[in-house]
């Protein structure tokens, strides 16, 4: 809890009186603690592999790597705290249930509530927990190239990955995706082109 508070830029004893810090609900705090525990081992392994390291090869003098890992962990916990405050994330159970029970679902909300960045991830995570993650192939339409790039980067950062892994994008003359990509940000022009090739979008 102390480390998560530090990741959110808080310190004990600094939020006294009318300090505008937002108080998490017990459910949100439990969610953050659970994710934090699962996240630590995964982040350490992923960052070690990203630096070309393998377990047992870095003997002695590993303090710098540990500090780097702690910084990344605090950053990840800060991002998770931001996600849990979004209205879309708070309603994740209702959203996932509605999508599972209906062919067409309309989700409306104010700008910045998490419709674009959270809903696709909530659906994917639900199927991953049910061991159906490999069956998911989602397209998220975006009106402009810059928004497709920006949203894909945001989603990737929230999942502690690089763009092109779970979250990728496809715009005119440029695409970044891989065999494990499950969420693809596309401009409307790309989607129209795909409809010309596959009117039913059978693979989506």
- CATH uppermost class of the largest domain: Alpha Beta
N-to-C series of helices and strands: HHHHHHEHEEEH
What's the overall average pLDDT, rounded? 79
Numbering strands along the chain, what is their spatial order in the largest sheet?
1-4-2-3
**Alpha-beta content class:** alpha/beta
Q: In angstroms, what separates the terminal alpha carbons?
A: 40 Å
Name of the CATH architecture of the largest domain: 3-Layer(aba) Sandwich
Radius of gyration: 19 Å
Segments where pLDDT lies below 50 for 5+ residues?
A: 1-21, 53-60
The portion of residues forming beta strands comes to 5-15%
- The share of residues in helices is 40-55%
Total domain units = 2
Q: Please tally the helical runs, counting DSSP H or I stretches of 4 or more residues.
A: 8
CATH topology of the largest domain: Rossmann fold
Apparent shape: globular
Largest sheet: 4 strands, mixed
Q: CATH homologous superfamily of the largest domain - what is it?
A: P-loop containing nucleotide triphosphate hydrolases
Domain Helicase ATP-binding: 96-204
GO cellular component, one term: nucleus
Protein name: Helicase ATP-binding domain-containing protein
Region (Disordered): 1-32, 47-69
